[in-house]
Amino acid sequence: MTAQIVFHGINRSAAVEAAVNEKLEGLAKFDNQIGPCKVTVTQEGHQTMGPFTIRVDLVASGRNLIVTRTNQDVMAALTESFDTIRRSVVEEADKRRQH
């Protein structure tokens, strides 16, 4: 499973793409029904000085999950957003198992 990764105001980054795909693969351990995923990486401002905003749109257990996190460090923003998504995915998978 791979994510659609869109970059705004920042050059495409192989390191960011690899990190997104690695984190997405990690989510599959919690839910084998993960659907489409779109990750948008935006750098606010100009001249490469502004913070980075990561938006993750993911379908898990048939529900749309959307998380947005902003940080001065692109990898920190990515980690924060996927940590939040992981909690939601685990919650949804737990709910499904209980029914």
Task: Describe the structure using short key phrases.
4-stranded mixed beta sheet, alpha+beta, 2 helices, RHF/RaiA, about 100 residues, Ribosomal subunit interface protein, about 30% strand, RHF-like, single chain, Double Stranded RNA Binding Domain
Please outline what is shown here.
The chain is α+β, with helices and mostly antiparallel strands and 99 residues long. It contains 2 helices and 4 strands, in the order βαβββα.
What Rg do the Cα atoms give? 14 Å
Q: Regarding quaternary structure, how should these chains be classified? A: single chain
Structural class: alpha+beta
Number of helices: 2
> How does the overall form come out from the CA principal axes?
elongated
